[in-house]
Amino acid sequence: MAKQTMIPQQVLDEIARGEIRPLYVLMGEEPYYIDLISNTLIEMLLDETQKDFDLSVVYGKDVTIKDVVMLARQYPMMASKKVVCLREGQDCSDFEHLATYANQPNPNAVLIVNHKQGNLDRRKKYWADIEHAALVVESKKLYDNELPGWIQQFVLKRGGTIDQKSATLLADFIGNDLSRIMGEVDKLFVTMPAGQHAITPTLIERNIGISKEYNDFELLNAVVRKDILKANRIALHFSKNTRNYPFIKTLATLAYFFNNLMYYHYLTDKSQRAVAAELGVPFSIAKEYEMAAGHYNGLKTMRIIRWLREYDAMAKGVGARGAADGDYLRELLFRLMH
């Protein structure tokens, strides 16, 4: 049998079509999709009454894979499928038993194996059998630059809208935690005034406590425009609230933009549409690179990228001079904008 590997959304689409596999191995660093796929399968296959008889949810710290396989060999009592879900499977070690089961699964059961905090060890002998017989889903952490787009799509599926700035506000404040982002978005929908469907910076500031004035997005905006007064005002606020505004995250935001700006300088077609396509950014953001290019030529951009790497190393303790993060940030901004 050929390898069966899918990304999370492909599996969710397949489940929605009613196409169910006998064995799912859901693994990776991002727990959101592991939980979502597991819960979607359980709700799709069993009603509330059937769950009492034909659903077994067990945890890796309490069972072995051999125990789980024995549960999966059972036949359903009321539903068409017996459903077995192993949560926290990373606490188990005897996955050779799963490889044996994968080659001859129970056609009257659906076994869902969760393995969070990383993947199964692909170097092990059992991996080849599991990879070829099970449907394997690797749930990867999103990159920081992918978060605003993910938030916009999630809000759209919920029946609302959110612009790029508001999505970036949420991403910058919450970070790469999809479950928490989902919870905060749900909170915003609950507190949204009747008849309103758009999530705005004002709504976010009022209900989540994120400042629409002091954030990485606004700092970058000030740097792009060489608004020295605004950039230093934000930097001062950051230095007083380092827990909410970690220096290393601010560096990542700046590095992403200036690496893209370096690429922009070498584009032959600098139209907004071409820039958006080449850099993989929203159409509305593409014009920011045109503005930045007027302030930062190719040589200056190259220097900035080098400086950002130096400060990133210092933030991680390499070559650090013992200064506070706020001091590093203000020093960096001076070098950037002068």
Distance between the termini: 62 Å
Indicate the structural class: alpha/beta
Mean pLDDT across the residues is 91
Which percent bin holds the helix content? 55-70%
Per-chain topology:
Blueprint: E1 5-6, H1 8-16, E2 23-28, H2 31-45, H3 48-54, E3 55-59, H4 65-72, E4 82-87, H5 96-103, E5 109-116, H6 126-133, E6 135-138, H7 147-157, E7 161-162, H8 164-174, H9 178-191, E8 198-199, H10 201-208, H11 216-224, H12 228-240, H13 247-265, H14 272-279, H15 283-295, H16 298-315, H17 325-337
Parallel strand pairs: 1-6, 2-5, 2-6, 3-4, 4-5, 7-8
What does this structure look like?
- This protein is of the alpha/beta class.
- It is built from 17 helices and 8 strands.
- Helix content is 57%, strand content 10%.
- The strands form 2 sheets. It has a 6-stranded parallel β-sheet, sandwiched between helices.
- Helix 5 (96-103) links the parallel strand 4 and strand 5 (109-116).
- It is elongated and about 70 Å long.
Overview in brief:
With about 350 residues, this protein is α/β, with parallel strands linked by helices. About 55% of the residues lie in helices and about 10% in strands. Helix 5 runs parallel beside helix 6 (about 125-135) and helix 13 runs antiparallel to helix 16.
